[in-house]
């Protein structure tokens, strides 16, 4: 699956990637801080932490539901009619699930599944399904993520690559940044020789509204380390991606 010049290639950007925004949940509604590992400042007991987080979710649901009732009124609907009575609460729970990645940490998910190895062959997990929300329109985009890396003494449990993709997909996103965040998370966790991430997705903001092109797909890629420097390694990655398609 070659990347054409017309596709967005994040890995070609010259600006260095930073990890500052990767795992910082937005918690403006509370003065109690939740860090990148999901720990709550001043709360040491898992039971107390669970109680705090459950209360915070309930408060978020209540505020979101009130806002959705206002939206329903402003689009000309009656939020008190039978079919919409519970819609604000349902939507609030759905939106919190769609954005649950703000309260999750890639490192926290991966730290217990890092293993020492004595090989440096490419690891590729392809066709990881992801669902995310476009931050411009709050409309879904969905597709597949392909993640590959060249180990440098350590590998990650295979399911954790999918979980890392999920952490960043379950936030308000643009596809370019999502691609970059997944690549940098794997790079930060494993310190491999290099990482490459490719995402192919369909954006409902291009299907349901705007230009209404139902078959358009967007491909983004981000490369680090050896995948940017070594043409042979990049070609091996492209070959492995094509292998299943041609079989």
UniProtKB/TrEMBL annotation:
GO terms for biological process: folic acid biosynthetic process; tetrahydrobiopterin biosynthetic process; tetrahydrofolate biosynthetic process. GO terms for molecular function: GTP binding; GTP cyclohydrolase I activity; zinc ion binding. Residues 66-238 form the GTP cyclohydrolase I domain. SUPFAM superfamilies: Tetrahydrobiopterin biosynthesis enzymes-like. Pathway: Cofactor biosynthesis; 7,8-dihydroneopterin triphosphate biosynthesis; 7,8-dihydroneopterin triphosphate from GTP: step 1/1. GO terms for cellular component: cytoplasm. It comes from the Eukaryota. InterPro entries: GTP-CH-I_C/QueF (IPR043133), GTP-CH-I_N (IPR043134), GTP_CycHdrlase_I (IPR001474), GTP_CycHdrlase_I_CS (IPR018234), GTP_CycHdrlase_I_dom (IPR020602). Transmembrane segments: none annotated. Pfam families: GTP_cyclohydroI. Keywords: Allosteric enzyme, Folate biosynthesis, GTP-binding, Hydrolase, Nucleotide-binding. Signal peptide: none annotated. CDD domains: GTP_cyclohydro1. The keyword GTP-binding applies. PROSITE patterns: GTP_CYCLOHYDROL_1_1, GTP_CYCLOHYDROL_1_2. Its EC number is 3.5.4.16. Belongs to the GTP cyclohydrolase I family. GTP cyclohydrolase 1 is the first enzyme in the biosynthetic pathway leading to folic acid. This is GTP cyclohydrolase 1.
